[in-house]
Specification:
This protein has 50 residues and is an all-alpha fold. It has helices at residues 2-21, 24-29, 36-49.
Length: 50
């Protein structure tokens, strides 16, 4: 259980870093355009996991 949760936390952190690297943090400032960083993360995971 500890191994799985640590792995999941590491993958979550890597996703946040990848989204931030591709410009996700710029869209966080735009409250009107909210959700785009989350959609970018979802697209990143869809491409990563297949």
């Amino acid at each position: 259980f500890l191994y799985g949760s640590t792995l999941l936390f590491a993958m979550h952190g890597a996703t946040i870093l990848a989204v931030g690297r591709y410009g996700g943090e710029r869209e966080v400032d735009q409250v009107v355009n909210r959700g785009t960083a989350t959609e970018r993360g979802a697209l990143f995971w869809r491409g990563t996991m297949g």
